[in-house]
Amino acid sequence: MCGIVGYVGDKSAIDIVLDGLKRLEYRGYDSAGAAVIGPAGLQIRRAAGRIKVLEGLLREKPMEGRIGLGHTRWATHGRPTDENAHPHTDGSGDLVVVHNGIIENYLPIKERLQAEGHVFTSETDTEVIAHLIERHLQDTPRLDEAVRRALRELRGSYAIVVLHRRMPDRLVAAKLGAGSVVFTKMDECVSLGCLYNLSRKLQAPLSYLCNGQNIPDDIALARPRNVVEAVLAMRQETAAMESH
């Protein structure tokens, strides 16, 4: 079972992301990774194995920034390796995606993108999403619209979060079928997520993001306003979330 945590605000993103991932460890996973945008640009760290392996990598190569996301993966497409761990990038290296679920038609999309010159470095269906969004960014400057157009091509059940180096003030998320996405609202800031205990930590009200019934019109955007915290997290099982 995969888990996603994201953060945008005025604190250290990687600290909050790691804390969130640890709260999701009970669900099982075989690799973990994180991405942060900060003074050094977009940085990614990922590793097969437990979160403590990722923490060791972060001690050797720390990341700094106020926006980021993280993921724990349970392998479906591709072996549990460093290369297959999330987050995954597009061809430019500017965009990262984390993803829960299964994309049923990823292979024909991958083959089409390869014919257009895209080069893939993993065995995952998730990397296809990143490259597909990159393709749509050629036609629209808006990240949320590029995500929407990409997801209209996908078949399957998924929850995704997207981060882009040239748009370092926002996280874009969407879901179709897989798990729950919950909004945490603080003042004028909106974040997304399924929260293990993070919602209690924030002491913020929650509301649900509906399924994208039109594949998907429900695209959510998390941005800080007046440097207010916004925390995002996702879990796969609605029932498990509602029990907390």
Task: Note down, in words, how this protein is organized.
- With 244 residues, the chain is of the alpha+beta class.
- It has one domain: 4-Layer Sandwich (Glutamine Phosphoribosylpyrophosphate, subunit 1, domain 1), CATH 3.60.20.10.
- It is 25% helix and 34% strand.
- The strands form three sheets. Strands 3-2-4-1-13 form a five-stranded antiparallel beta sheet. It has a five-stranded antiparallel beta sheet with strand order 5-6-7-8-12. A three-stranded antiparallel beta sheet has the order 10-9-11, with no helix packed on it.
- The longest helix is centred in the middle third of the chain and has 12 residues.
Mind sketching the topology for me?
Blueprint: E1 3-8, H1 13-23, E2 31-38, E3 41-48, H2 51-60, E4 67-73, E5 88-89, E6 95-103, H3 106-115, H4 126-137, H5 143-151, E7 156-164, E8 167-176, E9 181-186, E10 189-192, H6 198-202, E11 206-209, E12 219-222, E13 230-234, H7 238-242
Antiparallel strand pairs: 1-4, 1-13, 2-3, 2-4, 5-6, 6-7, 7-8, 8-12, 9-10, 9-11
Helix pairs in contact: 3-4, 4-5
Features:
244 residues; alpha+beta; Glutamine Phosphoribosylpyrophosphate, subunit 1, domain 1; five-stranded antiparallel β-sheet; 7 helices; 13 strands; 34% strand; globular; disordered C terminus
Classified in CATH, the superfamily is Aminohydrolase, N-terminal nucleophile (Ntn) domain
> CATH topology, anyone?
Glutamine Phosphoribosylpyrophosphate, subunit 1, domain 1
Number of helices: 7
Number of strands: 13
- Note the beta-strand portion: 25-35%
The main β sheet shows up as: 5 strands, antiparallel
